[in-house]
Amino acid sequence: MxxxxxxxxxxxxxxxxxxxxYRLARYLTGRDADAEDLVQETYARAFAGADRFVPGTNxxxxxxxxxxxxxxxxxxxxxxxxxxxxxxVMERAPATEETWLRDDLELDRLRKVVGxxxxxxxxxxxxxxxxxxLLDLEDLSEQEIAAVLDCPVGTVKSRLSRARAALxxxxxxxxx
Length: 176
What we know:
The protein is 76% helix and 0% strand. It folds into 2 domains: 1-83, Rna Polymerase Sigma Factor, Chain: A; 87-176, Arc Repressor Mutant, subunit A (Orthogonal Bundle), CATH 1.10.10.10. By secondary structure, it is an all-alpha fold.
């Protein structure tokens, strides 16, 4: 990593966002181990490219963008070379998303904090909508979310609006 103001800003401020990055990585990957790997790779890429960070801009948004791009790259790589599991591994694998949700300790802790209904509603959203909501919950502005997702601000606004409406509808009975 080259010396410079970008390096200093990333080193000073970057690790403060570890928990937020992990939460998004966990939702994107669905597994603790994969989320940890994704966050580790995100920080490795951030530190390696710290000279490209512009001091004075939002390091959190920059890190979220690196995480998203890393996730997409890894997803494409895995899709291009699928791994075939042995039959006995497939038999032991959870049959449905609901099964692994029940067994997952991290999500059990999350359920205690936000409630199973809210979590289930969030998981019913599509990946793009869920990502926009999670980034919004991390206090990123619409402009920062647009930069992370590499899309226009108008797209972020419409996705966020539709996602909020869907969550309101799904949680209507819960709020009564």
